[in-house]
Amino acid sequence: MSTGYWLKYTLHVAHELEEAFVAMVLDSPYTLGWTEPYIDVLVTENGYDYREIEERPVVAYLFEPLTETPPVHEARLRSFLAGWGEGVRLIAAETVAEENESWKEAYTPIQVGGWTIAPSWTPSEQLADKQHVLWIDPGAAFGTGYHGTTQDILLLLQEMDVTGKRVLDIGAGSGILSIFCALQGAATPVHAIDINPQSRSEIGQNLAHNRLPDTAVAVIIGDPLVDGDLLPGQADLILINIGGGEAIAMLPLVERTLAPGGCVILSGIVEWIRPKVEKAYGRAGFTVAAEKQSGEWVTLQMRQK
User: Fold this and answer.
1) pTM of the prediction?
2) Three-state secondary structure call for residue 53
């Protein structure tokens, strides 16, 4: 009988045992939450990267409903783990409330310029005095509006008139930028491409939250450098919020697709790769027309000279 509480176990699992251990847990009474390898965050020439430290154990989190006293549960778990010896060790056990939808509490409305970005479950009274609301639910695709790169693009877009503009959103994620452009009168469909298959359903849901038809955004799942034939012939505005190295790699596509007089907004650029991005685009005849910066992240609006 459920008490509304669970036991959460933190385990250390030898790196080479992770796959076998996870397979055993999935066929057991325990619920696997997630596993986390130890990683080193690396600062690279193009931004950030990471590497897994295989010499250190993987952290695994198991859960089970609390139906008896915690010591009884813990003793049973130790018996379950006994066959793994020192390869799998129990580090901590704690009682936690059953989550249900408590994770939603982490996502609250935020103000970006003249617009409020809010998840669909926000109580209406919280938004009673807000004139412009962009409804975006967090999901498996990037782009909740909480990251500085997304916010800085939205700020630049609010300074522009996108009415009637043909927009190509590369690395569209949740569709937040595509949907904003559609709400602001961009030509539809806005073309949104992302390599993550989850983007299609999430953009569809976020379109519905914003009372826009499915036809407002054409979702393309693929790699723009490989699947370029799926993209529109020309665009007046191209949005690329992926990274500095990726922005440089996309330059031939930008040159091929951007209509005369159009502009491209590049974001996800760490400040130490900015000179390389500007140099590459400068050689192609682009100059910086406007910019924003949040911490080390730079966003550039570029136009052809």
Assistant:
1) 0.76
2) coil
pLDDT for the residue numbered 53: 85
Q: What are the CA-CA distances from residue 255 to residues 164, 261, 262, 287, 304 (Å)?
A: 21, 12, 11, 13, 10
Contact present, 76 and 25 (Cβ < 8 Å): no
- Phi first, then psi: give them for residue 96, nearest 5 degrees: -130, 150
For residue 102, give both structure tokens: 């408590």
Q: Write down all domains in the chain, each with its CATH number in brackets.
A: 5-97 (3.30.70), 147-304 (3.40.50.150)
The pair of structure tokens assigned to 29 is: 């009474």
Give the bridge partners for 118, in sequence order. Answer: 135
Count of CA atoms in the C-beta half-sphere (13 A) of 182: 27
Task: Check residue 121 and report its DSSP letter.
Answer: T
For the segment 164-191, the average pLDDT, to the nearest whole number, is 97
Q: Does residue 3 sit in helix, strand or coil?
A: coil
User: What backbone phi and psi angles, to 5 degrees, belong to 185?
Assistant: 95, 15
Cα–Cα distances in angstroms (integers) from residue 176 to residues 122, 168, 204, 215, 230, in the given order: 17, 13, 11, 15, 21
pLDDT digits (tens, 9 = 90+) for 16-50: 999 999 999 988 999 988 888 888 877 777 777 77
Q: Give the chain's count of helices (H) and strands (E).
A: 8, 16
266 and 302 Cβ atoms separated by less than 8 Å? yes
**Of the candidates 48, 51, 11, which has an alpha carbon nearest to the alpha carbon of residue 32?**
11
